[in-house]
Amino acid sequence: MNMLDFEILQNVSYIVASALFIIGIKRLGKESTAVSGNFMSACGMFLAVAVTAVTFVDPMIALIGIVVGALIGSIIALKVKMTSIPEMVALFNGFGGLATYMIAWSEFMNGNLGAAQHVLIMLTIFIGGVTFSGSLIAYGKLAEKISLGKGHVVTNIFVLCLYAALLFLAFSIAIPLLPESMIFSNYFFILLGLTLLAGLGFVLPIGGGDMPVVISLLNSLSGIAAAFAGLLLLNNVLIVAGSLVGASGLILTVIMAKAMNRSLGNILFVGYASASSSSAQAKEQGEVKPITTDDAYLILENASSVLVVPGYGMAVAQAQHVVRELGELLEENGTEVKYGIHPVAGRMPGHMNVLLAEANVSYDLLVEPDDVNPSMDNIDVAIVIGANDVVNPSATEEPGSPIYGMPIVEVHNAKTVFVLKRSMSSGFAGVENPLFFRSNTRMLFGDAKASISALVSEFKD
Amino acid sequence: METLLLLGFILVLSVFLGLELISKVPSTLHTPLMSGANAISGIALVGALVLSTDTQVQSVLAFIAILFASINVFGGYLVTNRMLKMFKKK
């Protein structure tokens, strides 16, 4: 086959791959078709990569890179615990960003750039680099390896780097228009470095509780970076796949921000900064009423309906399996069991769904806040497992609270609330939770897994 | 330049398509969807595979890009698949 024919074949394959991506994303949005959607998108990827790889000038480099990358990626993907999925996605996403950063760097070294190419290179470097280093920070925050936050002096230094990088990006883009005297030869390497620092300055000030939204946004950015790289390389499949991810990621980000009743701007630039000074803390808190597992068991045994509301604490304690066991025992006992899932409970949207699915909880038992809130007063016992902000009644009752307006699971309206918690500390948002002091609330202190295991063994006896 | 304009046209259409595709997705699927989209952004692998390797530095850049994009692609698809396989109705 001659070169021209092959190029046609390649482009036809790209069209097929693009169609597979589009259908794949569409099917990923429905439970019944999601697995096949992911598979179709993977087929599209295989096709696009295969018809490109054969043209690579140095087949050994391509082969080794792909094989080693495939091995590392597969091992991580198959070994990772389900509770660590959010940070894994962040890490993979960062790697994609790094690849686009390298692509733009390599193109820059080709020299002889037109004006459009010059601009595209600078933009791709910036977006790809910020995606990379920002994702690493998101990974670190989710894995609880990084605790630096807003206001810390180190964070502030990186935030300054972010501003400096933006200015320098503008300068770099304008280079072809500037007089010779203003251009210094190493500007490109300064941009490379500043960009990576900018990613740190972008994500460091954002609180851990907002990381799900940030990962989604970074995911969108990595798509945009790929689309720009596509314009740079004049490669249509990169443009289609990249902008699909960029746009759908942005929509997903907005959906998630809405679930927290906050705007994207508020999450990125404001945060829960005012939380500590809010009026909620000054108020009379009332009394905390602890309960033992024996007493909790007696109440549960007589309950006719139970709502389980899990949060990040369930993930940390790896309690999803004992939770399922408790649910089954309650059902055998004639109790109606439902799981109230807040869309942003945990550190990733749908995080709780994934964990409960892992533990084999049928997903028709999972209900969203809107479905369960109207009938909350019929619930005998609501068991809150390691959730905090998503069940904080301040969100509906205290206009001064930083989380006021956020939709919550209104467990405070249930007849009895059990709160399983390790200590009295506040949630990720740093907001006091008056739920703990309510007259119908009983605190079951200790590790969630141990507490539930104790309940399970009481049921078995 | 003409090619670039045509490709810009494709970009705009794809953006609108992407905005339309994800409108009513149950929150259960948010994580797998994000993870699946993340795998697609590994398409940068195709970009990495057309890079030049004229100089040593460029060879290194191309290799790193291929390596990391491959991790993104394989890891992304597998982890998404693993998650989705767990959503079963009893």
Keywords, separated by commas or semicolons:
heterodimer, A: 461 residues, alpha/beta, Rossmann fold, 3 domains, 17 helices, 6 strands, B: 90 residues
Unreliable sequence segments of chain A: 273-282
Q: Estimate percent helicity of chain B.
A: over 70%
Number of helices of chain B: 4
Radius of gyration of CA atoms of chain B, rounded to a whole number: 17 Å
Beta-strand proportion of chain B: under 5%
Separation of the first and last Cα atoms of chain B: 56 Å
The ordered string of helix (H) and strand (E) elements of chain A is: HHHHHHHHHHHEHHEHEHEHEEH
What profile does the largest beta sheet of chain B have?
A: none
Shape of chain A: globular
Average pLDDT taken over every residue of chain B: 88
C-alpha-based Rg of chain A, rounded? 25 Å
What is the helix content of chain A?
55-70%
* Class inferred from helices and paired strands of chain A: alpha/beta
Estimated structural class of chain B: mainly alpha
User: What is the general shape of chain B?
Assistant: flat
Largest sheet of chain A, order of strands side by side? 3-2-1-4-5-6
Specify the biggest β-sheet of chain A: 6 strands, parallel
Number of helices of chain A: 17
Strand content of chain A: 5-15%
- The helix/strand series of chain B, from N terminus to C terminus, equals HHHH
Give structural notes.
The complex is a heterodimer of chains A (461) and B (90). With 461 residues, chain A is an alpha/beta fold. Chain A folds into 3 domains: 1-79; 84-270, no CATH class; 283-460, TPP-binding domain (Rossmann fold, 3-Layer(aba) Sandwich). Chain A has 17 helices and 6 strands. Chain A has helices spanning 3-28, 34-53, 59-79, 85-110, 115-142, 153-174, 187-203, 211-233, 236-259, 264-270, 293-301, 312-317, 320-332, 351-358, 369-372, 394-397, 448-460; strands at 305-310, 336-340, 366-367, 381-385, 416-421, 441-445. A 6-stranded parallel β-sheet of chain A has the order 3-2-1-4-5-6. In chain A, helix 16 links the parallel strand 4 (381-385) and strand 5. Chain A is globular. The relative contact order of chain A is 0.09. Chain B has 90 residues and is mostly helical. Chain B has a domain at 29-90. Chain B has 4 helices and no strands. In chain B, helix 2 (30-40) packs antiparallel against helix 4. The mean pLDDT of chain B is 88.
